[in-house]
Amino acid sequence: MTHTKVAPGKRPPAALAGGMPMPGWPERIGKAVFLTIICAFVVVPFIGVISTSLATPEEVTRAGGFVMLPTHGIDLGAYKSIFAGGTVTQALLVSCFITGVGTLLALLLTCTLGWALSRRGTVGNRKLLLLVLISLLFNPGLIPSYLVVQQFGLLDSLWAVIVPVCVSAFNVIVVRAYFVGLPDEIIDSARIDGASEWKLFWYIGLPLAKAVVAVIGLFYGVGYWNSFFNAMLYLNDSSQWPLQLVLRTYVVNGVEIGGQDLGVGSEALPPQTSIQMAILMISIVPILAVYPFIQRHFAKGVLTGAVKG
Predict the structure, then answer these.
(1) ∠ CA 130-135-140, rounded to 5°
(2) pLDDT confidence of residue 303
(3) CA-to-CA dists, residue 305 to 62, 217, 271, angstroms
(4) Is 123 left (phi over 0), alpha (psi -120 to 50) or beta?
(5) pTM to 2 decimals?
(6) 132: which of 26, 71, 166, 295 lies 20 to 30 Å off by Cα?
(7) Is the CB of residue 115 less than 8 Å from the CB of residue 213?
(8) 197-242: per-residue pLDDT in tens?
């Protein structure tokens, strides 16, 4: 049997080491071309949306409504019209309220429920955990959900958009799994020092679960920011509509935006396409701004909680 000699200080080829052979240049080039095409499908429309929202009215009119790259300068007229105090400004404030209050309430309920389910000896622990698991399998349906909201008197209230979805069974399971994996020695030593259950949760559980809380908070925040279906069902007053419902009305359904909707005169109104793309950008930018700060917690937060469960 012959042996291949390898020069000192050099690693043997993957095929000789018993591993998979390294891909050749044609395979690498093929992968690069494929990924480039996929990225182009994502990036090119996004660039077009930004360019159309910033292009001059003359350029938008000449291009027929969609500008790939503005060549006649940048015009902020669409954004100025949106923030003039009309419907879009009101919808943006409503979305900020729903997202902020809803995310804080959802995190509080999810973390406290996850902590209670993770503590052995809690009254009704197994029964409550069983209910949480059952809710993962069965959806109550549209009509029963509407009747519950109606019976609680939440119709035409922003709480109808916040409360029904403020606890996710999946997020509770992830948080519980993380709390279960905490070392018992830390909890026991804190109890010996006289810490109550609330102090254990607030000063030990939450600080150690920052990664999980950050990821779960992002899930809730994105859900509340993008929610429009519940608002469409439960809110009849257009002054309480969130930004996504306004976006659906003016962009998806193609309803024309008038000067009275934006709080400006009709003579100063930019092209409809520019206003629609500007609304679309405003609905996207907040989430894009938050993701880079939370991204580093994804693997540590969700995967750790899932594996420990």
Answers:
(1) 140
(2) 56
(3) 54, 14, 49
(4) beta
(5) 0.80
(6) 295
(7) no
(8) 888 888 888 888 888 888 899 889 989 998 888 999 999 888 888 9
- For 24, the token pair is 């050749």
Structural domains of the chain sorted by starting position, each given as residue range(s) with its CATH number in brackets: 26-75 (no CATH), 85-308 (1.10.3720.10)
How does residue 298 score in pLDDT terms, banded at 50, 70 and 90? low
Q: For residue 214, give the nearest of 285, 112, 135, 292 by alpha carbon.
A: 292
- Position 263 scores a pLDDT of 63
CB atoms within 10 A of CB 206: 17
Phi (first) and psi of residue 123, to 5 degrees:
-60, 125
SS3 content of the chain, % helix, strand, coil (to 5): 70, 0, 30
Nearest-angstrom CA–CA distance, 44 and 179: 43
In angstroms, the CA 72 to CA 65 distance is 15
Burial category of 103 from C-beta neighbours within 10 Å (exposed 0-12, middle 13-18, buried 19 and up): buried
Nearest partner of 78 among 273, 285, 283, judged by Cα: 273
Q: Above 90 in pLDDT, residue 20? A: no
pLDDT single digits (tens) 22-36: 567 778 888 889 999
With CA atoms as reference, report the closest residue to 158 among 99, 104, 110, 217: 99
Kindly write down the DSSP assignment for every residue of 56-109, as one continuous string: -HHHHHHHTS--SS--S----HHHHHHTTSSHHHHHHHHHHHHHHHHHHHHHHH
The pair of structure tokens assigned to 79 is 């954004």
**Nearest 10 degrees: Cα torsion 107, 290, 219, 145:** 80
- Distance (Å, whole) CA 111 – CA 27: 47
Sign of CA dihedral 51, 52, 56, 60: positive
What sign results for the dihedral spanned by CA atoms 50, 52, 53, 56?
positive
> What φ, ψ does residue 11 adopt, rounded to 5°?
-80, 140
